Amino acid sequence: MGHPDFVGGPPARLSTNIGGIAMKSAKSSRHSKIAGDFGESLVLYWLSKRGFECAKVDHTGIDLIANNPHTDEIMGISVKSRTRNKGTETDTVNIPSDDFRKVDEACNAFRCTPYFAIVVDANDLIRVFILSKKDLLDLCPLKANCYWKMAEASLKEYANHEGVMQFELQATHGHWWQSTK
């Protein structure tokens, strides 16, 4: 049974270091939804900034459609966003096998090529990977799920893979609230 003050139980606790002060903080009860929306908007912004005509779509299987100005390919993109607490930055991103069927169905309906964008907020570093479904499955063969590894060796492999587009955002903290609890 959930905590009486929070729908779905209490928010997850995490530690962060702000201004040299170790602090405990809590993710909001809607953090998962907010993180997903942020990941979609971040990928949409980045593609648009780089000349892609793109739009957010509300369709089962894909979140974004983009016209790649470099290849003239129409991309149907499923965005997978994850937030990692301190100490879990290298945890694998699990993509359920059913997501691949949904992406295929949506891309068939819109006549576009299936792509995935994986957004991982790992403390002060946000990593974004954009790749075709084909390249994703070449790198992470589908079993019960597809397992996108975030360990250092895998990150090097992705960096050297021609089909993996990626960018990173480094976050720094300024002055922030201190808990009085």
Write up what this structure looks like.
There is one protein chain. This protein is α+β, with helices and mostly antiparallel strands. The protein has a single domain, classed as Trna Endonuclease, Chain: A, domain 1 (3-Layer(aba) Sandwich). It is built from 4 helices and 10 strands. The protein has helices at residues 31-49, 97-110, 133-139, 152-160; strands spanning 13-18, 21-26, 53-59, 62-67, 74-84, 93-96, 113-122, 125-132, 145-148, 165-170. The strands form 3 sheets. A 6-stranded mixed beta sheet has the order 3-4-5-7-8-10. It has a two-stranded antiparallel sheet with strand order 1-2. A two-stranded antiparallel sheet has the order 6-9.
Question: Which key phrases capture this entry?
Answer:
181 residues, alpha+beta, Trna Endonuclease, Chain: A, domain 1, 6-stranded mixed sheet, two-stranded antiparallel ribbon, 10 strands, 27% helix, 38% strand, globular, disordered N terminus
Describe what is shown at a glance.
27% of the residues lie in helices and 38% in strands. With 181 residues, the chain is of the alpha+beta class.
